[in-house]
Amino acid sequence: MNPKKSLRLKYWFWNRQYLVVPLVPLLLCWLPILFNDPIGYTAYIIIIMAIYWCLEIIPLAATALLPIVLFPLFGVLKSDDVCRQYLKDTNVLFFGGLMVAIAIEEWNLHRRIALRLLLLVGTKPVWLMFGFMITTAFLSMWMSNTATTAMMIPIANAVLVQLRDKDGEDTEDGLLVEECPPYDATMKNDGANPGYEKNGNADTVVNSVEIVIKPTNHREGEGKSHYDRMVKGITLAVPYAANIGGTATVTGTGPNLVLINQIDSLYGSEANVSFSTWMMIGLPCMLICLLLAWLWLQFLFLDSFKFWKKKVPQTREQEARAKEIIRKQYAELGPMSFAEKAVLVHFVILVALWLTRDPKFVPGWASFFIPKFVTDSTTVIAICMALFCFPSEPMSFLWQPITWDKIPTSKEENRVAKQTKTIPPLLNWRSVEKKMAWGVIFLLGGGAAMAEACKASGLSSWLGGELVVFGSLAPGVMVLIITFIVAAFTEITSNTATATIFLPIFAELAVGLGVNPLYIMIPATLSCSYAFMLPVATPPNAIAFSHGTISVMDMAKAGFMLNVLCILVANMIINTFGVWVFDVQTFPSWAEAGTTVAPTTPGAINCSQYLQEMYTAGA
Questions:
Q1: Quick check: helix, strand or coil at residue 365?
Q2: pLDDT of amino acid 358
Q3: Could you tell me which of 192, 184, 132, 191 has the C-alpha nearest to residue 159?
């Protein structure tokens, strides 16, 4: 091909968004013309948003703002009804969870927890992998999956450097240790874990100096080959654990919050999906998936359970060096500060209040208040307010004498003294503005607006009627097929966007078939986080891949089987724990009450008819 033509094609591809954005509505304009009613208008808008989300030609959060423009213009919903969807109770819960995570990061408490856990598990490769996975998963339950991975990968690489054969450190056949530039973890799909990510949480940028281990082209000996596989296994273990860990809590990743938001929009609070009830489902599922991931990565990269292969044991010297690097990094943190202790106490109180608000099997503390007035968002915002007000240092001036080298007299001296002597709070608004995943909040709001429009226009009821053809399948088989489809889709699309697109459809499918909506929606939501095969699937995958120790084929080979295993676990959990917690085998009254009858008259304005009526009235 002519180089000039090739370059022109590249320019077209690089700037495709300026063509695709206006072209999509034009190509679909037949839909509202052919179906000139609220159902057709709503379908038209949702399809446009789904295409924009899948192609990511404009930012995901920007696409999520389209309902504010299009639903009022097409007469589907009033602007006031659309806008209030962007700061619902679930969005506030996510916002508060992220503020707590920001306070934890601000005082480096997450790093202290990570290093301490690694010191406890030891440095044998099998247990080292376990330590990295359990630590990453625990932190991802409460923090952004992206931020957790960005913190854990450099620690893992620094430890892996110490496990090399000391004799090969300076040889050409060893591994090169380089420093790479900061990684830009801008949201590809967002999440959430708090802090969005395509799981969430990620409209934030994580900058850090990374240690990168790169295999050279010349490898000799079984020991180096074994070491290379160990590097790949532990490097993959971190993002996989981050993706899995976020599924355990409501605030852990974006799809979980989308589910809560959709249920609240479609069925209200009667569905009874709260922080504690979700954790009864999510935590066992997370632990089983994490265990299977650990065993699978051992088999694939550490030759565990391969009795026909001879293992290459690590020497005590190598293990001691690895443990020393962890101990050294932990020692650099110094003793636990007053601020770290205070943040930890606030965090423990928050989790305890979440779990005991309405535990179902006994009355919770919320029973002392007016029913349904207090939610999980009430709790998290109360703790956030405490973080804004609590000092990061003891206020010793209350009981100790104040000593000054020089008493300030001038205005400038007073200003300097104020800056140096003022005790900062545990959380300040400037840090929140800088680190908050604002885009994810808008993304959740856009999903809630879509759900409200589907309900108000009658599109959800129409879809439910059309999807009844799937009634010939057994519910368990149908859920299994759905979870595989969702997991495949989320490999190439933001997991939050995937949940936003599919969950309203699955809700109406369940109602149309007389199945509990949670029976389909919960495993589908979990499957949105099971994206292990491609670097582009989630920001944690991309961070691990950017370090150069793994190939796309390594990730695809490990991720395919892990996808299958986790999907099977999600289906098993909904048929066991789901029956106990949510009684998913019974069609609930709240689902039947939440169905909407399609309006018999168009909700949109017929301009010509309106003008004629105005003229007649004026005459």
A1: helix
A2: 78
A3: 132
HSE on the CB side for 48, CA within 13 Å?
A: 29
Would you list the DSSP string of 409-464?
A: -SHHHHHHHHHHHPPPBSS-HHHHHHH--HHHHHHHHHHHHHHHHHHHHTHHHHHH
Q: Which candidate, 399, 130, 163, places its Cα nearest to that of 290?
A: 130
**Residue-by-residue DSSP string for 81-127:** HHHGGGG-HHHHHHHHHHHHHHHHHHTTHHHHHHHHHHHHH-SSHHH
Cβ count near 158 (within 10 Å): 18
Stretch 151-172: mean pLDDT, rounded?
A: 64
Strand partners, 258: none
* pTM of the predicted structure, to 2 decimals: 0.71
How would you label 565-592 residue by residue, b for 16+ Cβ within 10 Å and e otherwise?
Answer: bbbbbbbebbbebbeebbebeebbebbe
Range of lowest pLDDT (320-334, 406-420, 432-446): 406-420
Helix axes 517-528, 552-574, angle to 10 degrees: 160
What is the per-residue pLDDT across 208-263, written as a single tens digit (0 to 9) for each? Answer: 434 444 444 444 445 567 778 888 898 999 999 999 999 998 888 888 988 988 88
Contact between residue 567 and residue 426 where contact means Cβ atoms under 8 Å apart = no
Residues 498-518 have pLDDT tens digits of 888 888 888 888 888 888 999
Output the DSSP codes for 304-317: TT-TTS---PPPHH
* Distance, CA of 123 to chain centre: 29
Q: With beta carbons less than 8 A apart as the criterion, state whether 354 and 248 touch.
A: no
Q: What are phi and psi of 584, to 5 degrees?
A: -70, -10
Q: What is the mean pLDDT of the chain?
A: 78
Contact 309, 298 (CB under 8 A): no
Q: What is the largest CA-CA distance in the chain?
A: 99
Residue 90 pLDDT class (50, 70, 90 cuts): confident
Dist. CA 559–CA 554, nearest whole Å: 8
Q: CA-CA distance, 377 to 359, in Å (whole number)?
A: 16
Whole-angstrom Cα distance, residue 93 to residue 98? 9
Name the pLDDT band for 181 (thresholds 50, 70, 90). very low
Selection from 365, 185, 211, 339 nearest residue 274 by Cα:
365
CA–CA gap between residue 247 and residue 499 (Å, rounded):
13
Distance CA 412, CA 185 (A): 41
Among all chains, which residue has been given the structure tokens 């443990």? 323
